Amino acid sequence: MLRSILLLFLVASASSAPPNINLTHPHPQSVVDELHRRVNVSISRRQMLGERAAECLTGNPIDDCWKCDDWATNRQRLADCGIGFGADAAGGKGGQIYVVTDSSDHDVVNPTPGTLRYAVMQEQPLWIIFSADMTIKLKHELILTSYKTIDGRGHQVHITGGGCLTIQYISDVIIHNIHIHHCKPTGNVNIRSSPTHVGYRGRSDGDGISISGSRKIWIDHCTLSYCTDGLIDAIMGSTAITISNNYFSHHNDVMLFGHNDEYMLDAGMQITIAFNRFGEALVQRMPRCRRGYMHVVNNDYTGWGMYAIGGSANPTINSQGNRYTAPGNPDAKEVTKRVDTDANGWSGWNWRSEGDIMVNGAFFVPSGAGLSAQYALASSVQPKGAAYIDQITMNAGVLGGSRDEGVRRQGGGYTSGNGGDDSTVYTGGNGKGGGGDYFGIFGSRGAPLRSTSSMGSPILCLSLLISCVFILIGPLQHRPM
């Protein structure tokens, strides 16, 4: 009977279920403890070295991992520096380095070599960098394939325009040091998603970064603002995600995690939100969660219009070592909001606050096991307090430039969600760096090819789904009742 029920449920959901369902998840407390251990090591190391720590050591374990090295000649070192649930995101590690030399986006069906669109649709792992400062105004959403890193270090790179970044049914993506802003809905057009596939795309929401049915994603040191819908949304069973060291500003619906309250695959969603600064003119959803487990750690919330962290459908919220500074509005002091749910419905949800600093009347309403001192498994690694927030988040956002550089002049005011809210092509070279050859079209050396089409055929999706059914129900049959 159990086999029949699960089979009917999953087959009936085939049209919306991602083809790469992740059925294994780490124990969240082990991931939380490892993150705290790395923060504690970085802070202790800086304190021990004192003045000898130099500017490169901040106590931020991500930055301290790569920033003190000669990163320009060893860019792929960054892939070893992830933390949290998205720590295993490989990006383009082991692949060749692709240099974007052309900021245009004229043809979304046949992208020009040298453009960002041409790079992100390729099947092999690539570490994508930029030849100069540039603003890339997209005609339509930029559809990534698996095993890609977009690395803006060394230049000021802006991505704006139609749709912006789409991470759909893929894995292993790193987005680092990019300005993303003024993204708007576009679509109802054919877009190439791989060298062998062109597909029709409906209208996009206008998210800065849209993550759907994907895993092992890391978004680090980006500056995001002024998009039509969300700045970062993760839905449809996406998991193993870290969002770190970013600067968010001028927006209403900042981040949405979860497709809808009834979408059960989002129960496996695990996301780390760490070392970010939530800056001026933000209203809500920092983040807004459905189901899943969210570790919100060592972030600096400088205000909000309505609330900071919201949720529905029983997500777990583990807030540790953050600084929450409430706005002046006496009716908006609460950090938390249970969306469209009365107290009888959310009293058992596990929401806790540990080591957070509340400023200007801010308060966090815990619930479930969060009301108890013993929230989860006993931890041998205690989180550092929010007193280190200034130190840890001092470089949040894009490195090397003003957080609002080149953004304000393109339009003022934030938007409400849901609409209310010619260069030469580089053709190759022999320069070395980051573990791969530089190339414009393609060099000869790289990691093995991986199947990365972001628009798999219905037959393939269905076959993978049925395989997942038998993987899932096999252990259930032998589980004690």
Automatic annotation (TrEMBL):
Signal peptide extent: 1-16
Organism of origin: Kalanchoe fedtschenkoi (Lavender scallops)
Catalysed reactions, as listed in the record: Eliminative cleavage of (1->4)-alpha-D-galacturonan to give oligosaccharides with 4-deoxy-alpha-D-galact-4-enuronosyl groups at their non-reducing ends
Record's keyword annotation contains Nuclease: no
InterPro entries reported for this sequence: AmbAllergen (IPR018082), Pec_lyase (IPR002022), Pectin_lyas_fold (IPR012334), Pectin_lyase_fold/virulence (IPR011050), PEL (IPR045032)
Domain Pectate lyase: 133-330
GO BP term (any one): pectin catabolic process
EC number: 4.2.2.2
UniProt similarity note: Belongs to the polysaccharide lyase 1 family.
Annotated keywords: Calcium, Lyase, Membrane, Metal-binding, Signal, Transmembrane, Transmembrane helix
Pfam families to which the protein is assigned, alphabetical: Pectate_lyase_4
Cofactor(s) it depends on: Ca(2+)
GO molecular function terms noted in the UniProt entry: metal ion binding; pectate lyase activity
Keyword Methyltransferase included in the entry's annotation: no
Lineage top rank: taxon: Eukaryota
Cofactor: record remark: Binds 1 Ca(2+) ion. Required for its activity.
Annotated transmembrane regions: 455-476
Name of this chain's protein: Pectate lyase
Pathway: Glycan metabolism; pectin degradation; 2-dehydro-3-deoxy-D-gluconate from pectin: step 2/5
Enzyme class, spelled out: lyase
